[in-house]
Structure of NAD(P)-binding protein:
Amino acid sequence: MSRNILLTGASGYLGGTFLELLKDAGLPAHKIYATVRSDTQAEAVKQYNASPLSLDLSNTDAVSAAIIDNNISIVYHLHNPLDTGVPAWIKALATVKQQTGQDVHFLLTTGAKIFSSHAGAPTEPFSDTDPALLSIQQSQPEKSPIDAMGVAAQCNSLVIETANALGVKSYIFAPCIVYGRGLGFGNKISIQTVAVVKAAVATRRVYKVDEGRPTWPVCHVLDNSTLYIEILRGILEGRDIGSGASGYFLASPGSVAWDDIYAAVGKALKKRGKVDDEAVVKADRAALEKMGEGLECPADFVPLQLGGLCTLTAEHGKRIGWTPRYKAEHILEDADAEVGLILEYLENARSYGIPKGTKLKQ
Ligand SMILES: NC(=O)c1ccc[n+]([C@@H]2O[C@H](COP(=O)([O-])OP(=O)(O)OC[C@H]3O[C@@H](n4cnc5c(N)ncnc54)[C@H](OP(=O)(O)O)[C@@H]3O)[C@@H](O)[C@H]2O)c1
């Protein structure tokens, strides 16, 4: 039987690439409803045989009605890791389950940041199949050095707890430093590589923000999308791929040191005359202030955007048959092309939008 899927964020970097790759993925029968915010987006999603749904995603009544009215049994949420309205979405899926007898599924896109030093997560290696992951996340709001990161960890737990209580299968999907040209109709570039470039262009040099050589998981955008697809394949084929407290997925072939990313970006920017010196030095307070101006965020939030330690490792994807095409080091080999791509789209680059005056802890 064909399944109805609700996709948010189709005009974004990750959602757009997912939608494009879905066309040739050979998945069992399904129909995509893509949420849109403009007529242009509505026209654009039709080229993928998706049905546009014009919805205010903060209006949980409207979202619930759309899920129930369209018999949606699978939700792919790709637009806001801080969405505390998700219980209403999950309740609506439970109603569909009751009315149709179909199993129902909710996937939330979070971020590797929520499993990092910025969010009070462990700083020793731990895997996305760790049976203690839910209890780790439940403890993070108290430990998180940044309020918003605590809220995001809470949001992940909320999804799992609500879904468990209502008989809905849930998945927490964590993209990391994603890079490479997006294939969708909307945004073509990522967030974190962009932050490194934006801050460097503003200060005319690449600064590091941490002591030591912290590492972070990385992933090519095509590999990130194929993990979304393999999860969906498992769901549509009715396989048990692990859900709820066992439903975390990090999309990554491995980690690299921020220092190596900075060095590669510095070289590519120097070649293009965008920095005065390709050598990477530690940022002092004045540099952080200037980087913050470039990133349109308070100086205290600069390390959140382009540094920190994330020791989460990816096991779950491999267990369901996902094989990333690119190894982690490819991000360094590809840095010159990535910088060229970012500079091409810099005018329209999206940022985290952290207003001036926001404090790490309120
Ligand atoms: N890219 C990465 O490296 C990365 C890493 C970790 C986590 N993530 C998370 O993954 C998700 C997708 O990332 P992305 O890179 O694809 O982001 P993106 O390119 O900025 O796209 C965001 C998408 O969400 C939509 N959106 C945002 N706020 C919305 C709202 N209030 N109502 C309806 N739609 C809304 C946007 O629609 P419009 O086009 O209309 O604005 C767009 O389609 C985000 O939640 C992001 O935080 C991304």
User: Anything to note?
Assistant: The chain has a mean pLDDT of 96. The two ends are 50 Å apart (CA to CA).
